[in-house]
């Protein structure tokens, strides 16, 4: 190839001419020849190589000048005429005579550009030599200004990120985040070392934020604190309600993060969260827009890192570093907030199980709705997970856990504890298992013992809260520990006695065992925990039968006369009389016990004649001498049996779900539409909303409750409680329970 400036033949690939020193790609006019009009930044690697070549060319030119001023004595001077005579080029001959020159005579001269164009060229800013983690950037004005601007505009970054990826943008994140932050600050003051535990958990496992992991580092006494529990329960309620509107708009199922009534006994109730701990994590993640916010921050950081590679100067680079730092801080704040929120929720109850069990939160309340105790336990106590739970009439409860079996009072104080049933065979001598407990502060305990006479065997004792123990039975073994039953139920006829299989609070326990003296024999007995007595099964059945006969004899005259007793319910489905517990006209299992009528059929005709009713009725319920009547056509009224007076009729609705309770009649109906002028109207295109109306004896609606998309009252009413899946109400007052 040839130089386009001077025409000298040069080697292929050379970028600068060794004769004239100009770039090969330039013409004599000095304009760059390119294949297009677009601007292109010079390659950094080529810039360094071109500079090195320029130094060599400049050095060669200086060398030629020195040689012309001080030629060697033996060298002949070549004139232009001589050159013309032999056809040579003096410039070429002069350069070739200097080609062996390697070092410039003057360093300053070597640093000067070979021409005006090289003098105008500046090497671009190279951010590759900068350390983005260096603290020096944070001290610059460009960094600080860019950080503040980027931090303040983060919400717009999240909004744009959601729009770009078609992800829902949560409008109320700041409000919910602020509430969680306030709760956490209160909790942090009450639990020493909480912040350190959260920081350690984030550093070790930044993707978990389980709360359970964090709570493992907190002293157990802290979780038993009433102040801690009350603060944490506010977080539970906040989490349960934060995504309620969103979930109800996009699902047709019952609200999964509210509460339901699990069990009622006497004046106490166990209320259980519909959602598990993992569900709480999901709804908190959603309500805090965690995925969108962390995703937006990471996406923005990646883009900024790309811009940093093209920064033109220190100020521009420092500004980009400030913007990156702002997004990192925003992402870290989001991660920390989620960890704090989940820790707050985890502190809402004592942990009776491992996190892997994905537990639900249980709240133990009294009749007024005050939360007395809260704990985490698997959501299906009767299921495969090996956990069982039973509530006593005094508020005590028993937990059959994976690793232990214990009885707690209503405040969470452990009264009796022992090993899990599966550990029974391998447990050491002296270890115990708690089988059941009674409402009077007693429990049935089995202890493994060993002596020289019988070897290893078991002793059943009735133990009391004060530590006293009374031996009631020695046995070689139980025939089956699962066959030790408690919770005697009997009613109706003499054959109506049966035993509950699950853990239950009862003064009686049915035990089938193998005696010490004869291992081939099996004996069945009933133990009275309150009295500490043991009865044979036949003896106990006779005692119950005598009681049943006594009750039947008392009820028979009322049935003959058609005169309802307090608490009786009649249902047209089978024409039987039941003892009221929780009556639901939609359920096959009415959660009631048949009344022992002594074999006498209730005189329904006499009752209808007395109240002057000729229409078909579906149900009646008697409470405090007041008869509540519901007709087939959807009308209801009350009749004063004491004064033989009928109150006004009220239209409740035909074929609607209803329930009689001691606190009035509950009726579930579709919510009236505003567009239809308050009338029920559903075109079938949308999911209807339902409300529950509570009527008093005069037919007046005294309270209304939302029932969401649930069109029934099944599993909603227990004693004085109504639970719609989100809120739990006290039917006596109509007020929602104060869960915090």
The gross shape turns out to be: flat
The number of helical elements comes to 18
Helix content: 25-40%
Radius of gyration: 44 Å
The average pLDDT score comes to 76
Structural class by SSE content: alpha+beta
Q: Low-confidence segments, ≥5 residues, pLDDT <50? A: 26-112, 243-256, 490-495, 582-591, 674-685
**N- to C-terminal distance:** 89 Å
**Major beta sheet summary:** 8 strands, antiparallel
Our estimate of the beta-strand percent is 15-25%
Number of domains: 4
| Total number of beta strands | 35
Record the SSE blueprint.
Elements: H1 44-69, H2 80-86, H3 90-96, H4 107-111, H5 116-120, H6 141-152, H7 154-164, H8 173-190, H9 194-204, H10 212-215, H11 220-223, H12 226-242, H13 244-250, E1 259-265, E2 268-273, H14 277-287, H15 290-308, H16 314-346, E3 350-351, E4 359-365, E5 371-378, E6 388-391, E7 397-400, E8 404-408, E9 414-419, E10 432-438, E11 442-451, E12 455-464, E13 469-475, E14 477-478, E15 485-489, E16 498-500, E17 508-514, E18 523-528, E19 533-536, H17 537-561, E20 568-571, E21 577-579, E22 593-594, H18 604-611, E23 617-623, E24 626-631, E25 635-640, E26 645-646, E27 650-651, E28 658-661, E29 664-670, E30 690-695, E31 701-706, E32 717-718, E33 721-723, E34 728-730, E35 735-736
Parallel strand pairs: 3-5
Antiparallel strand pairs: 1-2, 2-4, 4-5, 6-7, 7-8, 8-9, 10-11, 11-12, 12-13, 14-17, 15-16, 15-17, 17-18, 18-19, 20-21, 20-23, 21-22, 23-24, 24-25, 25-26, 25-27, 28-29, 29-30, 30-31, 32-33, 33-34, 34-35
Helix pairs in contact: 6-16, 7-15, 8-12, 8-16, 12-14, 12-16, 14-16, 15-16
């Amino acid at each position: 190839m040839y130089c386009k400036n001077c025409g000298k033949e040069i080697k292929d690939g050379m970028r600068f001419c060794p004769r004239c020193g100009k770039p090969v790609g330039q013409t004599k006019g000095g304009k760059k020849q390119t294949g297009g009009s677009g601007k292109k930044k010079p390659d950094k690697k080529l810039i360094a190589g071109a500079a090195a070549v320029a130094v060599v060319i400049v050095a060669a030119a200086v060398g030629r000048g020195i040689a012309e001023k001080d030629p060697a004595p033996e060298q002949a001077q070549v004139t232009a005429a001589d050159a013309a005579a032999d056809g040579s080029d003096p410039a070429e001959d002069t350069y070739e005579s200097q080609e062996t020159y390697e070092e410039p005579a003057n360093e300053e001269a070597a640093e000067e550009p070979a021409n005006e164009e090289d003098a105008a060229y500046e090497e671009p800013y190279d951010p590759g030599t900068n350390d983005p983690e260096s603290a020096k950037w944070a001290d610059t004005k460009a960094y600080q200004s860019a950080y503040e601007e980027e931090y303040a505009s983060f919400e717009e970054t999240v909004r744009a990120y959601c729009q770009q990826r078609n992800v829902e943008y949560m409008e109320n994140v700041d409000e919910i985040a602020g509430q969680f932050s306030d709760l956490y600050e209160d909790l942090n003051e009450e639990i020493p070392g909480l912040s350190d535990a959260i920081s350690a958990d984030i550093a070790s496992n930044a993707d978990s934020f389980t709360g359970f992991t964090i709570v493992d580092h907190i002293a157990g006494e802290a979780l038993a604190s009433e102040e801690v529990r009350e603060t944490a329960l506010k977080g539970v309620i906040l989490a349960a309600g934060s995504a309620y509107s969103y979930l109800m708009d996009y699902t047709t199922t019952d609200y999964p993060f509210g509460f339901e009534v699990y069990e009622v006994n006497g004046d106490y109730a166990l209320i259980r969260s519909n959602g598990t701990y993992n569900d709480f994590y999901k709804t908190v993640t959603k309500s805090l827009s965690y995925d969108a916010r962390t995703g937006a921050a990471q996406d923005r950081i990646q883009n900024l890192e790309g811009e940093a590679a093209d920064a033109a100067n220190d100020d521009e680079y420092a500004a980009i570093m400030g913007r990156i730092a702002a997004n990192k801080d925003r992402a870290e704040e989001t991660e920390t907030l989620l960890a704090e929120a989940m820790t707050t929720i985890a502190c809402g109850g004592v942990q009776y199980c491992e996190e892997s069990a994905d537990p639900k939160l249980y709240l133990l309340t009294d009749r007024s709705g005050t939360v007395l105790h809260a704990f985490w336990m698997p959501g299906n106590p009767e299921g495969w997970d090996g956990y069982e739970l039973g509530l006593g009439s005094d508020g005590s409860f028993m937990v059959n856990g994976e690793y232990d079996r214990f009885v707690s009072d209503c405040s969470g104080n452990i009264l009796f504890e022992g090993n899990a049933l599966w550990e029974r065979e391998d447990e050491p001598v002296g270890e115990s298992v708690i089988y059941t407990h009674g409402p009077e502060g007693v429990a049935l305990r089995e202890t493994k013992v060993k002596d020289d006479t019988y070897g290893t065997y078991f002793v059943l004792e009735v133990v009391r809260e004060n530590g006293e123990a009374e031996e009631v039975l020695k046995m070689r073994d139980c025939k089956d520990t699962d066959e030790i039953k408690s919770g005697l139920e009997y009613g109706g006829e003499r054959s109506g006695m049966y035993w509950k299989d699950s853990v239950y609070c009862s003064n009686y326990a049915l035990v089938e065992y193998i005696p010490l003296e004869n291992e081939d024999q099996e004996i069945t007995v009933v133990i009275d925990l309150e009295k500490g007595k043991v009865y044979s099964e036949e003896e106990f059945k006779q005692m119950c039968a005598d009681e049943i006969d006594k009750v039947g004899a008392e009820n028979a005259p009322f049935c003959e006369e058609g005169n309802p007793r307090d608490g009786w319910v009649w249902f047209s489905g089978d024409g039987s009389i039941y003892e009221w517990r929780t009556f639901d006209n939609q359920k096959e299992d009415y959660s009631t016990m048949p009344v022992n009528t002594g074999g006498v059929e209730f005189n329904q005709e006499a009752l209808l004649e007395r109240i002057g009713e000729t229409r078909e009725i579906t149900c009646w319920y008697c409470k405090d001498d007041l008869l509540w009547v519901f007709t087939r056509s959807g009308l209801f009224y009350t009749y004063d049996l004491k004064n033989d007076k009928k109150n006004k009729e009220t239209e409740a609705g035909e074929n609607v779900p209803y329930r009689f309770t001691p606190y009035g009649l509950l009726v579930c109906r579709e919510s009236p539409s505003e567009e239809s002028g308050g009338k029920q109207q559903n075109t079938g295109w949308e999911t209807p909303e339902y409300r529950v109306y509570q009527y008093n004896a005069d037919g007046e609606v005294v309270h209304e409750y939302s029932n969401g998309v649930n069109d029934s009252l099944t599993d909603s009413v227990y004693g004085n409680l109504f639970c719609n899946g989100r809120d739990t109400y006290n039917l006596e007052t109509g007020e929602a329970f104060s869960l915090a």
